[in-house]
Known about the structure:
The protein is 42% helix and 24% strand. The chain contains six helices and 13 strands. The chain has helices at 2-62, 73-78, 184-190, 195-202, 207-211, 222-233, and strands at residues 66-70, 82-86, 93-95, 104-109, 112-117, 123-125, 131-135, 138-145, 149-153, 168-172, 180-181, 214-215, 220-221. The longest helix is centred in the N-terminal third of the chain and has 61 residues, at 2-62.
Amino acid sequence: MDDERHQESMIKISSDANYPHSLSHSICVFLLKIYHQMKALLAIVISAFFLQMTDKCFAQTSATVTSGVYITAKDHKKNKLHLEADCVNDKNKFERNDYFSTPTFVIIHKGKRVTYLKKNIFAYRDCNNRVWRFYKEQAYQIMETKSMWIYTTQRAILNDVVIEKDPIVYFSVGPETEIMELTIPNLKIAFLDNWIFLNMVQVEPEAEKSVRSYDSDHKMYRVNYLYKHSKKEK
């Protein structure tokens, strides 16, 4: 009987001795869970911080877009803008007056109205980063500046009601020469002596449509691609 009591007493003592170890293990498990949760939270906070900084960087980049006027073709080549304005904080406003073919072009710069004669300026750049060249009191959007300069515009009537949905494509041989509609008859006028180029143009499938199209494979208008290769054939 005494032996049994002694054994029960020993079991109780042993159990009590293991209790601190059990408690310590539970605490460790609890702290480990907290550590992993904090680690995950920290990762989320860091990600949010970098996303915010990235947005700020993009905002600063967009703030560098400016609009203004190119007085000459040389200004355009050097990207030298007159009446330059920040497109985010101090946006220019333009009045082209194309529909009535008026000779004036108005820019509202920092609240002041400045009027130019279209014949006295080469082009202007808007806040969509599009550049428009003036020729005979009309504005033509410059699309490409290679051997041939390519332009587009749309024929419209009053209130911006467009007669033709597809833009009309034009060209000039360089930045300061006559702007002509991009057609095979006009190419024959402009490149009368370049029979290699004219032959390449005329053998194109759907030639009239082809020369006005953009060649995405070569990243240029098809007419410029053909002209480039016509010079290699000489």
